[in-house]
Amino acid sequence: MRIDAHHHVWTLGRGDYGWLTPELAPIYRDFSISDLSPHLARNQIEGTILVQAAPTEAETMFMRGIAEAIELVRGVIGWIDFDAADATARIDALLGQKLLVGLRPMVQDIVDDDWLLRPDLAPLLTAMTRHGLVFDALVLPRHLPRLLQVIDRHSDLQFVLDHCAKPHLATGDIAEWKQHIAEIAKRPNMVCKLSGLVTEAKADWQIADLRTAVDHVRDCFGPQRLLWGSDWPVVNLAGGYEKWFAAAETLLGDLSSAEKADVFGGNAGRIYLAKRGRRKS
């Protein structure tokens, strides 16, 4: 089964998407599953992972409601307030929500670059491990050394690196990123989401502009630890769903049929959906 391992929906009137402003005109409107469905149909994608886009627990409940109503959505990556005094209890309370497959603190937007290293984060990650929740790491290249320490401290927790950690493709300044990716990929509890690259490239990107980064994560993680995601509707800022999907197919064109099946769905099913009786078919 093909799975889009990373997309969003949002309703602006909910009021908690602080980053989403009129300046982002192509995506400054409501987006629903019905808007996404034609893209999925054209690319024979049968399931999705719906990912948080606002740092509120209200949005997590909003997404859970969508997933419960629409079979196409196989799992939800939500958000909780990791800084709350009762954060561990909040994670424990999520145990009965089978469609919740992971949590994603928006690390890229946190002012403190050392937030990941806070000692009081450790029991929260232990609780996630206990409940089989995946930690989606929305980080920037500068966060990778800190993330590496966290991964090593929590070797039983499954981590997913969102958007390849957003390398600076527009400037080409990716040498340090490549070093950190090579090191982090040595950890077996980390996989990498092949998503979000086109919005880091220059505005008129071509496939050649993505190849160095894609080849690097391919070499480091291998096709068994890569998950393709659209990052829709954010991808509309950089060419749209079909252009990115076609580019990914080209960039992965030399893989075997089995390896492509892993990247475009099998790995997402294994990482996100194989635990706690989650919806797989």
Q: How does this structure look, described?
A:
The chain has an 8-stranded parallel beta sheet with strand order 1-2-3-4-5-6-7-8, with helices on both faces. It starts with a strand and ends in an 8-residue tail after the last helix. It is globular, with a radius of gyration of 17 Å. It contains 9 helices and 8 strands. It has one domain: Metal-dependent hydrolases (TIM Barrel).
Low-confidence stretches: none
Number of domains: 1
Fraction of residues in H or I helices: 25-40%
Structural class estimated from helices and strands: alpha/beta
Please count the helical segments. Answer: 9
* Rg measurement, Å: 17 Å
Q: Per CATH, what is the topology?
A: TIM Barrel
The secondary-structure element order is: EHEHEHEHEHEHEHEHH
Binned strand content: 5-15%
Query: What summary fits the major beta sheet?
Result: 8 strands, parallel
CATH superfamily membership:
Metal-dependent hydrolases
- Please give the CATH class: Alpha Beta
**Principal-axis shape:** globular
Biggest β-sheet: strands ordered side by side in the sheet: 1-2-3-4-5-6-7-8
Distance between the termini: 8 Å
**Mean of residue pLDDT values:** 95
Architecture per CATH nomenclature, i.e. the level-2 architecture: Alpha-Beta Barrel
Strand tally, please?
8
